[in-house]
Amino acid sequence: MQIERIQIHGEGLDVPAIAVTPENFRASVAVIHGYGGNKEEMLGLAWRIAEAGFRAVSIDLRGHGGHPFRLDGEIMHDVEAAIAFLRQEGPVAAVGHSLGGRLALHSTADFVIGISPAIRKSFSEQTRKHIRAMRSHRVREISDHILFDVLESLPEWSVCDKGTLIAGERDVPEIVTGCAELAKNGADLTVIPCALHADIFNQEECFAAVVKRLEERFR
Question: Alpha-carbon distance 47 to 190, whole Å?
């Protein structure tokens, strides 16, 4: 297994990333953190994806980690730059958590997995205050409300066969109800027992669900 820091060059931007590459891989996977996260936080998930035979590349979104830009409305460019880079070597999946999950679902990847995706366009004042209190100190952003502006600007996600959802049983209320509604409309949804929003992406059941879906898609 090769582990290396890389810079993904996009149009007018450089996205810091860490690539975990097995000797032979069947597809590549962009791993995308949530609000207040970073590429290092997702390395456990990236490692488990790589162990299953996929090249996993964990990126820093703008405003996070080593990314030079502040968080703004152009955040999807970071995701698409990573996908375009990975597509040079074959099919690409995107796996993201929370904000990263919502971005993954809307990306142009060949297959997408949203882990506790911030699926709603709006959130309660209580949820907003909690997110700001617990995560905003780790983000460089152009305004206090830019996260919610970004979420509101994204279209509703349409259920499709190239996407799957994973949510925690004890997840953020809006995410629990949002994913359940999508499941009623035909979305593939895996619920991880007892999982919280903040740690679901490092739980064994989540690792297993992600790997299973990737192996089913890229046989």
Answer: 21
Q: Is the dihedral of CA 200, 203, 205, 210 positive or negative?
A: positive
CA count, 13 A, side-chain hemisphere, 112: 27
Indicate whether this model's pTM tops 0.90.
yes
Give the closest residue to 75 by CA, choosing from 154, 166, 132: 154
C-alpha dist (Å) from residue 126 to 174, 175, 192: 11, 14, 24
Q: Give CA torsion, residues 202, 204, 205, 209, to 10 deg.
A: 80
Strands (DSSP E) found in the chain: 2-10, 13-21, 28-32, 55-59, 92-97, 111-115, 163-170, 188-196
- Residues contacting residue 198 through CB under 8 Å, at least 6 positions apart: none
Q: What is the mean pLDDT of each run of 10 residues along the chain (219 residues)?
A: 96 96 96 98 98 98 97 97 97 98 97 96 88 92 94 90 94 94 94 96 97 96
